[in-house]
TrEMBL record:
Gene3D superfamilies: 1.50.10.10
Pfam families: Glyco_hydro_8
Keyword Transmembrane: no
Keywords: Carbohydrate metabolism, Cellulose degradation, Glycosidase, Hydrolase, Polysaccharide degradation, Signal
Domain of life: Bacteria
Signal sequence interval, chain numbering: 1-22
Name of protein: cellulase
GO biological process, alphabetically ordered: cellulose catabolic process
Length: 348
């Protein structure tokens, strides 16, 4: 099954995105991406190849390296891409598989005290390698992506009842009674890329089961996904995972974004997000919502959340936020992902 056939299968599930929201002011294509990447690179890239998370003690993560490499590939910035890829291999790559440790702590000894991986970081790095390899005619980069995808499928997927789930990491998410997943780790554009590169039908199963989870894991007044979801291994019942705040927030904000980017945001899901965004409006989007009490954060969401809302249901004539006044790395990354998703849509 090719990429188009796979997307056709998701159409049958209601899994293609709706047309852009009326009144939404789209970014200026590839030129907009290049301009925003220049700002991101100046703020968060270090010459040794490290992307700095300014919201978390200037740490670095496999997620951030993946985002940075994706942005550089989209902006056709090969030297910066190669610097990030070299640093990532030297500092985060595992020795026994093709995955990556999730965090680097500057000034700490050792700098990588926890070698557990983060599957979203692995998938983002693989997607960046695949895109960069094709853009620059680099077979070595494409082959590196294939190796990562192979090990994600081999090590980071688990059958739980009727679901083949994507584990967030190798350690800490499975016990005899339940499995904890993070729906924002289903980086749908990367999973589509994995299937396209490997032609392994297991990737279709992972995506299809991921969509089933996203469709069913809708909690609270607004029917939103939680940051962390628990699947009962005996009954397959879904619940908000214990041990984490019961919120739609920092992680789950990426669920609609990745669906939109992959053209898999169903009309039903988009309508639900639209109701949520519109209730608060562009000037008062919450940083989080408690899915058990309905309480909202005492502060408003950063600009990156607004960018996600603008492409996934918020009717707004406002232009996308730019990165010039981004408060931190993560908000900037969300915004630039929206620029890239829109630019790819316009290029078709």
């Amino acid at each position: 099954m090719g990429r188009r056939a796979m997307l056709a299968a998701f159409v049958a599930m209601g899994g293609m995105s709706m047309p852009p929201v009326a009144g939404f002011a789209a970014p200026a294509g590839a030129d907009g991406v290049a301009r925003q990447w220049a700002v991101f690179r100046k703020k968060y890239f270090r010459p040794d190849g490290r992307i700095v998370d300014t919201g978390n003690n200037r740490e670095s993560h496999s997620e951030g390296q993946g985002y940075g490499m994706l942005f550089a590939a989209a902006a056709n910035d090969l030297p910066t891409f190669e610097a990030m890829w070299s640093w990532t291999q030297a500092n985060l790559r595992h020795t026994k598989d093709s995955l990556f440790s999730w965090r680097f702590l500057p000034g700490h000894v050792p700098a990588v005290p926890d070698t557990n991986n983060a599957t979203d970081g692995d998938l983002l790095i693989a997607l960046a390698l695949a895109k960069g390899g094709r853009r620059w005619q680099r077979h070595d980069l494409v082959q590196a992506a294939v190796e990562i995808y192979r090990d994600v499928l081999r090590l980071m997927t688990l059958q739980v009842g009727s679901y083949r789930v994507l584990l967030p990491g190798a350690q800490g998410f499975v016990n005899p009674d339940a499995v904890t997943v993070n729906l924002s780790y289903y980086v749908m554009p990367s999973l589509l890329q994995a299937f396209e590169l490997t032609a392994d039908p297991a990737w279709h199963t992972v995506m299809q089961d991921g969509m089933r989870l996203i469709m069913q894991a809708r909690f609270g007044q607004w029917g939103l996904p939680p940051d962390w979801l628990s699947i009962d291994r005996h009954t397959q019942a879904l619940s908000i995972a214990k041990g984490w705040a019961p919120r739609f927030s920092y992680d789950a904000i990426r669920v609609p974004l990745y669906l939109y980017w992959a053209h898999m945001l169903t009309p039903d899901l988009q309508a639900g997000y639209a109701r949520f965004w519109t209730h608060f409006g562009a000037d008062a989007l919450p940083g989080w919502i408690d899915l058990t009490t309905g309480a909202r954060s005492p502060y408003n969401a950063p600009p990156g959340y607004l960018a996600v809302a603008q492409c996934t249901g918020l009717a707004s004539s406002a232009k996308l936020p730019t990165l010039d006044h981004a408060p931190d790395y993560y908000s900037a990354a969300l915004t630039l992902l929206v620029y890239i998703a829109r630019a790819e849509e316009q290029a078709k």
